[in-house]
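no rush on this but wanted to send it before i forget. what follows is a protein written twice so to speak, once as letters and once as C-alpha cells for the fold. mainly i need to know what kind of three dimensional shape the backbone takes. thanks a lot i owe you, the record is right below.
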Amino acid sequence: MKKVYLAAAISAVYLYSSAVPATAAWGEKKFSSGISSGTVIHLFGRDLITEAFDGKPLSWTPFQIWVVDRQLPKAKLITGLALNLGWERHGIPDLVGAEAGFVNVADKMWGLQAGLINGAEKVHGVQAGLLNATDRVYGAQGGLLNAADKAFGIQAGLVNGSDDVYGFQLALIGSAADRVYGVQAGIVNTADKVRGLQLGIVNICDRLSGLQIGVLNIAGSAPLPIMVGLNAGF
C-alpha cells in the first residue's frame, strides 16, 4: 500500500515541477509535462495496476466491490456504483456512475470519483480526493494535488498542474501549466502562454495576452517584462 501512495506522490510532484515545456521518459512511453496515455499504469505501477483482465470479465455490471486484489464481479463496464477497498487490480473498467474508496481507477469515466487517490484516462464529471490524475478532464478536479494533461473546466486545490487549461486553475499555493486559456489564481502562478488572467502574489509567464495582477508580475512578451501590481500583454 505504501508503494501506491509513494508512486502517486512522485507523479504529482514531477508534473508540477515540469511546468515549462519538456519531455521525459517513464517506462516505455514519453510524455510532456502532463500525463501520458497510460495515466493509471504510470501512477500506480505496472505490478499493482494492469490494463489486461484476468479470465473472462462480464461485459457490464451495475455494482462492483474491489477488495485487496479481487473485483467482484469482474467487468469491463460499471454502470452504477463501485466501492474500492483494494490496491492491486487486473483490468481497468469504464465507469458510468460513481466510485468511492481508497484508490479509484477507471479508463473512461462519466460521473464521480471520490476517494484518497483518483486516476482515469478521461473524466467527464468530477474527481474529488487528495490526489486526482487524468489525461483529460471535462468538468472539475478538487483536491490537494490535481494533475491533468488537458483540463476543460476547473482545477481547484492546493497545487494544480496541467499542460493545457481551458477554464480555471484555482490554488491555495500555486498552479502550473504550459498554456492557459482562462484564469490562474493562487499564491504562485506559472505558465508558458496565457490568454486571460493571472491573479496571485507572483505571476510568471513567457507569452501574455491579457492581464497579470499581483505583487510581482513577470511576462517575457509584455512591453514591460517585470511589473509590480499590474501588467498587461497583447
About this structure: Residues 128 and 136 are 15 Å apart (CA to CA). Residues 1-38 have pLDDT under 50 and may be disordered. The first helix runs from residue 2 to 17.
